[in-house]
Amino acid sequence: MMDYIASLSRCRRWGAQGGKSSAYFFKTFDERFIVKQVTKTELDSFEQFASKYFKHLEDSFSSGNPTCLAKVVGVYQVGVKSVKGGREWKIDFILMENLFFSRKISRVYDLKGSLRSRYNPDTSGDNKVLLDLNLLEALSTKPIFVGSRAKKRLERAVWNDTSFLASIGVMDYSLLVGIDDEKKELVIGIIDYMRQYTWDKQLETWVKAAGILGGPKNTSPTVISPMQYKRRFRKAMSQYFLPVPDECSP
């Protein structure tokens, strides 16, 4: 507990890449945790399914069924007071595990299983977050190979977690993938699962499907119903990682 408090006592601003929101991100100085600002809508949504979320994690740990959800370890509200004028306001944050803690990650992908607006043209420099189309583009030269047993375990984890997320009406999540070349390992976790499929998301689905916000009409939108999202996500994640016999894997 003291280590946890010590981690939270010092944080620094962090410019997270890959997301579309304007939320503030922070990292604890020891890099164990990531702190993300959440909207009231996101907080209300999480509060509605929090008990089911922790039950899902408990069941996974007790049964040995794999899960790849990036863990939420705390929810906090911070009060802020302006020195000039004395205005006060409150900001909500969630505290998550840092999947890449103590890792040397050479490539990072944020994958949704969609092709609409899923390409990052700026691939230069460190810590660039690449998207689905970047991965597909790289498959001919830098495919991601995994051993057969690891591939099956990954698919089981994705299957378990997407079944749970669909059951609570959550969609638009991503699989965050980090490639650790030094250890020849993949570090993965499902992130951005705070929002449920509410009326505003249904409207966004219709607008994107109609091509009003750009992109071809025959390309599946990123925002679809939780059940549709689950099926598309599972299919894509199964295709993105290429299995090899275990004796050939690192």
Helical residues, percent: 25-40%
Low-confidence stretches: none
What fraction of residues sit in β-strands?
A: 15-25%
* Head-to-tail CA distance between termini: 36 Å
CATH superfamily: 2-Layer Sandwich
Mean pLDDT: 86
- Main sheet summary: 5 strands, antiparallel
What's the helix-strand series?
A: HEEEHEEEEHEHEEHHE
List keywords for this structure.
single chain; 250 residues; alpha+beta; 4-stranded mixed sheet; 34% helix; 1-phosphatidylinositol-3-phosphate 5-kinase activity; nucleotide-binding
Explain what you see.
With 250 residues, the protein is of the alpha+beta class. The chain has a single domain, classed as 2-Layer Sandwich (Phosphatidylinositol Phosphate Kinase Iibeta, Chain: A, domain 2). Helices cover 34% and strands 24% of the residues. The chain has helices spanning 2-8, 40-63, 132-138, 148-167, 199-209, 226-240; strands at 11-13, 25-28, 33-38, 72-81, 88-97, 107-111, 129-130, 145-147, 174-180, 185-191, 242-244. The protein has a five-stranded antiparallel sheet. Strands 7-6-9-10 form a four-stranded mixed sheet. β4 and β5 form a beta hairpin. The mean pLDDT is 86.
